[in-house]
Fold this protein.
Amino acid sequence: MTLFKMFRRGSAPIARERLQILLAHERGARNQPDLLGILREEILAVISRHVPFEPDKVQIKLDRGKSVSTLEVDIEIPNGFGVALAKAS
Amino acid sequence: MANVVVVTSGKGGVGKTTSTAALGAALAQHGEKVVVIDFDVGLRNLDLVLGAERRVVFDLINVITGVAKLPQALIRDKRLENLHLLPASQTRDKDALTEDGVAKVIDELRTKFDWIICDSPAGIERGATLAMRHADAAIIVTNPEVSSVRDSDRIIGLLDSKTVKAENGERVEKHLLITRYHPSRAARGEMMTIEDVLEILSTPLLGIIPESEEVLRASNIGSPVTLSNALSAPARAYFDAARRLRGEVVPMIVPSENKGIFNKLFGRKAA
């Protein structure tokens, strides 16, 4: 492409490029199942087999970083089970 | 068999109501029996665009709630005896638009008409999802502009998941109608081209409606553009789109840079 053409090419190609990137991202997010919901359900199923806890006292958070993402699981366990956990370890 | 078609877009102001009126009239002008339904409860405008605003007595919500029978609410166009309007309610509560109620109305209309064209409200809320709910086919109205294209993509996703057809594992037939197209601005690179929009949305093209003063004039006088000036560029584009909707193969013509002259044949086959 000549410099003249580049200068003249207008803003439409920019619109097109921005849309292609954005929609690829949005379509991916749309078709994905609820990852956090699935993780939450399966993690809680495993833990509840061994330790009783209240489902309301569970927090699951997914932080997406540029290179690394972190999954934070915070479960409040009633006190009696602290002893059992300590013995097990 | 009746065809239920939703005219939808996500974004407001792109030309859904104008296109519903023009395509409904064009089909009626071909001799088809047509009803156009306004789903924009609280903000009805299809009556105004069709010049029937003073003839509205009962509306869609009245029929759903049993206040009126369907034939009482249908308004027959004064110029086209095959064209009927089922207006939206202007004041009533939006919650009165129920899924069962809409299903019953559509079922009854299917026995009386060849084409049932549902003019969707903007957005993705209840009115919009109910307008598309029973559709056999969808016309996605898009302007060659970023926010309109993005919203159209979102609506295409809903058509593929939230309609009765989609839930039964079938597909709603989708058609893209590009409106307010400025050939000269596209040629200068100021506006996305038809190819750009088609590539991004990968949906078959139903028609290209050029930007035209005739469209505004038509709504000013309360007449579909296919009636107010049948030889104008937008009217001809709507007539072609209506023929494609009926399954005819009509060569796609891209409005050219020379104002009012359609001379550049577009290589792509219609839907």
In short: The two ends of chain A are 68 Å apart (CA to CA).
